[in-house]
Specification:
Belongs to the glycosyl hydrolase 43 family. Helix content is about 0%, strand content about 40%. The chain is an all-beta fold and about 375 residues long.
């Protein structure tokens, strides 16, 4: 067997292991798929049978992990099933991230959603971070009396919540009516930043991604003065390939750092298709990029990660299980300092999406998920 070198990123060091001896991240649960050209699932990746999209995974102070996602319904860990505005899956221990097949509860109950929001609508793509002695959740929901999607900010003492948005106004909601969604917070040097889909910086059917600094309370710098546009749909070509609506979509951003360099993971194309995939762009050495991030590995023409099948877009690299519609990727640090990734895939036969976690490594000249 050809042994390829895999580098697992860690704080202050890089460990090298053989591809044939990858360490398991947790229990691997087989999810149903209708994907053709499916590869064997890596021993280091874990799949969930709980329907959850746009996942965000956070290490907790109990040495385990919680994964949050878009509003859904499914199995409760204590028995029975139900609906959740923001479902929470609790899983893993230490460096073993894993995933769960049941929800421990609702991180943002309907009554705790901001008064400015349409509480009857679903919550999209929550992003959570611990900062300033509390947990902050950025969530997307429709503005009351409008179909405009805006971002709210809720807080909690612990990772399992319940989170509450006590504000009378959203964190971001452009007066132009343009959408802002998919906020994902991150911390560097003790300072908080937020990356999000920001259609305010584009026009018509185009979309964009921006980064802004925030204070200890989670609110953006006054007047969003530090905001920088880091990518737009005009910077890539595969965002609308075979898209019947011809919408140019870039969304679900996540900023992560390897060595001294910051990278942007983002999703593009139609989420209800095998074409929804993940791009990676290089962003320089500052947590707020000083210029546009540059898609890597021929990333203008094709995604970095995605479905390697006839219905896909010819990505540079596949993912464990070779699932259709793999997007919403978030790259995060495990308790042992290593990089991990969480993302969802799209089951074409049912229209459902399911989360996957895995090791985020350097292999054969590029990032890979194992």
């Amino acid at each position: 067997m050809n042994k390829r070198k895999i580098r697992i990123f860690a704080v202050g060091a890089v460990a090298v292991v053989a591809a044939t001896s990858a360490v398991a991240v947790g229990t691997t649960s087989a999810a149903t798929t209708d994907d053709d050209n499916r590869d064997a699932v890596s021993a280091a990746s874990s799949e969930s049978r709980f329907r959850l999209a746009d996942p965000d995974t956070v290490p907790t102070n109990k040495n385990d992990y919680i994964t949050y996602g878009t509003s859904s319904s499914g199995k409760k860990c204590g028995g029975g099933s139900g609906g959740f505005k923001v479902p929470m899956l609790r899983h893993g221990s230490g460096g073993d991230v894993g995933i769960a097949d049941c929800a421990i509860g609702d991180a943002l109950p309907r009554k705790n959603i901001g008064a400015w929001a349409d509480k009857s609508s679903g919550v999209w793509a929550p992003g959570v971070v611990k900062h300033g002695g509390k947990y902050l959740m950025y969530y997307t929901i429709s503005k009351k009396g409008s179909k405009q999607k805006c971002i709210g900010l809720a807080t909690a003492k612990g990772a399992s919540g319940p989170f509450k948005d006590g504000s009378k106004h959203p964190w971001a909601c452009p007066p132009s009516g343009r959408w802002v969604i998919d906020a994902n917070p991150y911390v560097s040097g003790g300072k908080l930043y937020v990356v999000y889909r920001d259609d305010q910086v584009t026009r018509g059917i185009e979309s964009g991604v921006s980064v802004v600094g925030a204070g200890r309370n989670g609110w953006a710098d006054k007047g969003f003065s530090s905001r920088r546009t880091v990518l737009t749909s005009k910077n890539i070509a595969w965002d609308s390939t075979k898209n019947a609506g011809n919408n140019h979509i870039v969304e679900n951003p996540s900023m992560f750092k390897v060595g001294k360099t910051w990278y942007l993971a983002y999703s593009a194309n139609a989420w209800k298709s095998a074409r929804y995939a993940t791009g990676i762009a290089k962003c320089g050495t500052k947590p707020i990029p000083q210029k546009r991030c540059s898609p890597i590995r021929d990333g203008v023409k094709r995604p970095y990660f995605g479905f390697k099948g006839k219905a896909g877009l010819g990505p540079w690299r596949g993912l464990p299980g070779n699932h259709a519609g793999s997007g919403g990727m978030d790259v995060f640090r495990a308790h042992n300092g290593g990089h991990r990734a969480v993302y969802h895939w799209y089951q074409r036969s049912s229209g459902k999406r399911f989360p996957v976690t895995g090791n985020f490594v350097w292999q054969d000249g590029g990032f890979a998920v194992k």
